[in-house]
Specification:
The complex is a heterodimer of chains A (341) and B (284). Helices cover 72% and strands 1% of the residues of chain A. By secondary structure, chain A is mainly alpha-helical. Chain A has one domain. The mean pLDDT of chain B is 84. Chain B has a single domain, classed as ABC transporter involved in vitamin B12 uptake, BtuC (Orthogonal Bundle). Classes of the chains: A mainly alpha (341), B mainly alpha (284). The interface between A and B is large, with 42 and 42 residues.
Amino acid sequence: MTRRIPALVVCVAAVIALVVPLFLPDLSFYIQMILAAVIVTGLSLFMGYAGQASLGHGAFVAVGALTVAVMTVRLGLPPLLALICAPILAAVFAYIVGLPLLRLRGHYLAFGTLALLLIVQAVIATVPFFGGGLGIFGVPPLGVGDAVISGQLPYVYLSLAVLALALLISRNVIRSRFGRGVRALAGSESAAASSGVPVLRTKLAVFALSAAFAGLAGGIMAFFTPYVSSESFPVATSIAYIIMAVIGGLGSLWGGVIGAVLVSLLVQVLNAVSNQPGLPATTGPVLQYGAYALVLILALLFIPKGIVPTIAQAMRRRRDRRADAAAPTDVAVEPWASVQG
Amino acid sequence: MNDFITYLVSGVAIGCAFALIGSGFVVVHRVTRVVNFTQGTLAVFGGLIASTLLKGALPHGIAEIVAVLSAGVIGLIFGFIATGKRGTPPLISLLITLGLSTLSAAFFILFWGQNPISPPGIGGATDVLGARIETQRLLVVVVTVIAFVVLSLFFDRSYVGKGLTAAASNPRAARLVGINVRWMGFLSFGIAGVLGGLAGVLIAPTNAVSFASDLPLALGGFAAAVFGGLVSVWRTLLGGIVLGVVGQLVAGYLSGSYQTEVALLMMLAIMIVRYKSLSAEEAK
C-alpha cells in the first residue's frame, strides 16, 4: 500500500527541509512541525492498518517527554541515556495498556484511548515526582559528557534525522512479512486470523511501534522546551494528530508527513493573522478554532482518502489514460491489462 | 448525614444529565455506526441558548423548550454534514463531528464569550430528609425520568421509533421494507440533539457551561452509556446515576480532583471486562 512518490520529489523535499531552518529566525514552530510528522507517521501506521482511531496518542508523547524529564532532572542520569529510554518506555507502556485496550474496537477504543490520555494527564498533575501541579523545569540540554548541544539548529537536524528513521522503519515494516499480516488486518480481522495472522499480537506490535515514535518525539520535545507538565499534552493536540494523519492519507507512507506539514502551517498562519494588532480580543480564539475546523471539515468531506492517495490515484489514472491513447489495440485485445496495472 | 444526602442528590442530578447525553450517543451510534463527538457540544448549545432566551424575557418553560428544540435542529444539521455525503466511512464522520465541535467552540466564544454561563433556573431549595437541596436539582431528576419514559415509548410504540430500531438492527432489511435508512440516520442526530439540549438546559443553572464544557459532558455521557451497556435507555439512566453519585461522593469525601479519574477508570474497567457481551448485544 506504499504509494510510490518519485525519488526526485523526495530529494527536493529533503533539501528544502534541510535548508529552510537556516533562514528562519525562530525554529520552535519548525521543530514542532517535524516532531508532529514523526508522531503522525506512527499514528498513520496504526490507524491505517489496524483501522482504529487512537484519540489519545498524546499519552505516549507524554511518556517519552516524562521519561526524559524524570531521568535527567529527578535522577540525574545522562541526557543521551534518557533519550534512548524515551521510545523504549513509551513502547513498553503502550504494550501494557494495549493488552486490555486493543481488545476494544470502534467507539470503545476511541473513548478508551481518550480516557488513557486524560488519566496520564491526571497522574502527571497529581504525582509530585512526575511534576505535580508545577511541572518539571530545567531539563538539561542534550549531549554526551561535556559536549552539549546549544541553540535550536541541532535539534532541528536531530528531529529531521528521527523523521527519516521513522519513515525508513515504517517502509520496511509495511514491506515485511509482518507488514503483510498487518495489512491483512485492515481488510478483515477474521480473514487475517483464519490465514494465521495473530490478530491481537500484531495490533499490539504496531501500537507499540507507533508509541515508540511518539515517545522519541516527546523526548526531543522535552530537551527542546525544556519543560514538561501535565498541560504540555492537551487533548486538542492528540485530535490534531489524527486529523493530520487522515488529511495526509491513512496508511500511506508520506501521508503523515504531508498532513503534519499542511495542518501545522495552517495553524501557524491562523496564529499570525489572529495576533495582528487592532483586532478584538475574541478574534484570536474564534479565528483559530473556527477557520481551522472549517478547513478540516471541508478537507474531510471532499478528500476523505487523504491528499497522498488522492494524488497518487489521479497520477495513475493519467498515466493509464496516456498508455491507453498510445496503444489502444493492446487494451482492446486484453481489456484486463489496465485493471491489473 | 446531611452532607451525604446533598452529595447523593446532586450526584443523581448530574448522573441524569450524563444519561441524557449518553443515550444520544447510543441512538446515533446504533443507527449510523458513527461516534458523535458533538454530543457534549449539543448540551452546551442547549444551556447557552436558554440563557440568551431567558435574558430576552421569554418566560421559563417556553425559553427552555425553544432551546431544546434548537439543539435538536442543530443536531440534525450536524448529522447532515457528518453523514450526509454518501459513502462517508464512520471514521471520517467521527472526525467531522470532532471538527464540528471545534467549530462550535468558535461560535460559543463569538456569541457568549469565554466565561462559563449559568442561566437562571427555578430558584429556591427544598428539604429532602433534612438536607437543603436546590429545587433545580430535583427538577433535573423529574424531567429526566419523564424524558426517558417518552423516549422508550417512542422507540417501542411509534412508527418512526420502530423504523429507527429497524434501521439500526438491519439496514438492508429496513431498506427493503421501504424505510429511508439515510433519513433515519439524520433523525437519530436530531434526537441526540434534543437529548443533549435537554441535558444542557437542565444542568446549566447549577453547573455553569462554557465552550470548554463539551468534552467533560461527552465523556460523562459516554461513560454512562457504557455502564448501561449501550443498548437499553433505562440501563443508561442507571449507569449515569451510579457514575454521578460515585463522582460526587469521591469529590465530597476525598478530593474534587479525583472525580474525573475515578469515572474514567470505572468506564475503562467496564468496557474491557464486558467488551464481548457489549459488542454481542450491539450486533443484535
